[in-house]
């Protein structure tokens, strides 16, 4: 019901245990699990767990405007606050030292490895000057 973009992605989420039915976490479900009116569905899309209540059932895919008639979003505000914190903190899903450096890390590396003492000064001594 428009929680996932495709049915294939929804099926994969079920297989990975990211979909549960029932209050307070409930039980993990298989893709073929039937739901009924009043069921509470929890969808884990890290870092947030969305919660929905089934109001009506439909056999067909619906337009986005009709979704509120069939499903109620009862996700707690604390989950949305968590999402905001993650966005603000600049969450990077890559451990330090793995993969290619980001643009910022590349700039810092370039700054670190560049010759910082070259400000137009010539520090090389002239051999003729030492001989005099």
Overview of the molecule:
The chain has one domain: Roll (Structural Genomics Hypothetical 15.5 Kd Protein In mrcA-pckA Intergenic Region, Chain A), CATH 3.10.290. It is built from 5 helices and 5 strands. The protein has a 5-stranded antiparallel sheet. It is elongated. It starts with 6 loop residues before the first helix and ends with a helix.
Which CATH architecture would you pick?
Answer: Roll
Query: Main beta sheet, described?
Result: 5 strands, antiparallel
Q: What is the H-and-E element order? A: HEEEEHEHHH
Proportion of residues in helical segments: 25-40%
The Cα radius of gyration reads: 28 Å
Figure out the total of helices.
Answer: 5
Mean pLDDT: 81
The geometry reads as elongated
Uncertain spans: none
Proportion of residues in extended strands: 15-25%
Q: Structural class per helix/strand content?
A: alpha+beta
Distance between the termini: 89 Å
Q: How many structural domains?
A: 1
Output the strand order for the largest sheet.
Answer: 2-1-3-4-5
Q: How would you summarize what this structure contains?
A:
The chain is of the alpha+beta class and 132 residues long. The protein is built from 5 helices and 5 strands; from the N terminus they run H-E-E-E-E-H-E-H-H-H.
List the helices and strands and how they pair.
Blueprint lengths: L6 H9 L3 E3 L5 E2 L11 E6 L2 E7 L12 H4 E3 L3 H13 L13 H11 L13 H5 L1
Antiparallel strand pairs: 1-2, 1-3, 3-4, 4-5
Descriptive labels:
132 residues, five-stranded antiparallel β-sheet, 16% strand
């Amino acid at each position: 019901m428009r929680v996932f973009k495709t049915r294939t992605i929804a099926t994969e989420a079920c297989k990975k245990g990211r979909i549960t039915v029932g209050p307070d976490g409930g039980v993990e479900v298989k893709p073929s699990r039937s739901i009924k009116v009043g069921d509470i569905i929890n969808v884990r899309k890290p870092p947030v767990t969305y919660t929905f209540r089934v109001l009506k059932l439909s056999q067909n895919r619906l337009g986005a405007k009709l979704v509120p008639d069939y499903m109620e979003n009862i996700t707690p505000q604390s989950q949305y606050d968590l999402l905001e914190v993650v966005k603000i903190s600049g969450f990077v899903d890559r451990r330090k030292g793995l993969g290619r450096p980001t643009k910022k890390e590349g700039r810092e590396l370039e700054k670190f490895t560049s010759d910082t003492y070259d400000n137009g000064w010539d520090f090389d001594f002239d051999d003729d000057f030492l001989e005099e």
